[in-house]
Amino acid sequence: MTPGFSPDWLTLRESADAAARAADLLDPLLAALPDTSLVVHDLGCGTGSMARWLAPLLPQPQRWVLHDRDPGLLARAAANVGVPAEIRAGDLTELTARDLEGASLVTASALLDLLTAEEVDALAEACTGAGCPALLTLSVAGEVGFTPPDPLDAEFSAAFNEHQRRVTGGRRLLGPDAAEAATAAFVRRGAVVHRRDSAWHLRPDELFRQWLRGWVQAACEQRPELLPHAADYQRRRLHAEVVVGHVDLLAIGGAPCSTDSGPG
């Protein structure tokens, strides 16, 4: 699976993530959860930002199970989520319903777009097999809108989206197609999927600068012909405002596929 991100980047983006997540998914989520104590499995937990955002919004007592492949991030998250938590290190693409046995809820943040179609399908199989809702937030949507616009915005945006869909380590990532693929995978299994926009709204600050630098760099990696324009373009964009599209999904119900569990 794609390597994780630095703790500094995850910390920097946490407030933007919290502001962007679709809070109106909480009502259908709460209606789907049991009244008893909850066991929440957070996949790709990073520094624990999902738990810090969601745990105070759930009225029931909770225990969180934090999954990540990075032991350092797991230790940091467990010490800072503010609720009882255990950690599990491993490859998220290998999770099955057995690994999620007893879960009341599965959560993830900024994860789906790093997966392949087969891995997203397997995640839907695991969640429906465990019989629990899945709240999957902040998947890249492939939409970036700058104010004011620039003639090169469309080229850099297209190149970045191609980079998000690249083949790496023999795996073709879904990138901006992840939300559609996840929706289809859960719907195939009979789940009801609620979808909401959860865009970042960024003004010039440190998060914006770091995001812009990484966005331009990825675009140039994908299309090297953009390199001669990159420095001037980035300089022009530094004082813009930007809306970075993301999507939140809440999948409720469903059952694992009895025959074909492929991506369809």
Written overview of the protein:
There is one protein chain. By secondary structure, the protein is an alpha/beta fold. Helix content is 38%, strand content 23%. Strands 1, 2, 3, 4, 5, 8, 9 and 10 form an eight-stranded mixed beta sheet that branches. A two-stranded antiparallel ribbon has the order 6-7. Strand 4, helix 5 and strand 5 form a beta-alpha-beta unit.
Task: Provide keyphrases for this structure.
alpha/beta; eight-stranded mixed β-sheet; two-stranded antiparallel ribbon; 10 strands; disordered C terminus
Q: Quick gist of this model?
A:
This protein has about 260 residues and is of the alpha/beta class.
Helix content: 25-40%
**How would a textbook summarize the main sheet?**
8 strands, mixed
Tally the helices: what do you get? 9
Class based on secondary structure composition and strand pairing:
alpha/beta
The first-to-last residue Cα distance is 21 Å
Low-confidence stretches: 259-264
What string, H for helix and E for strand, traces the elements in order? HHEHEHEEHEHEEHEEHHE
Radius of gyration: 18 Å
Tally the beta strands.
Answer: 10
Beta-strand content: 15-25%
* Average pLDDT reading: 95
Outline type:
globular
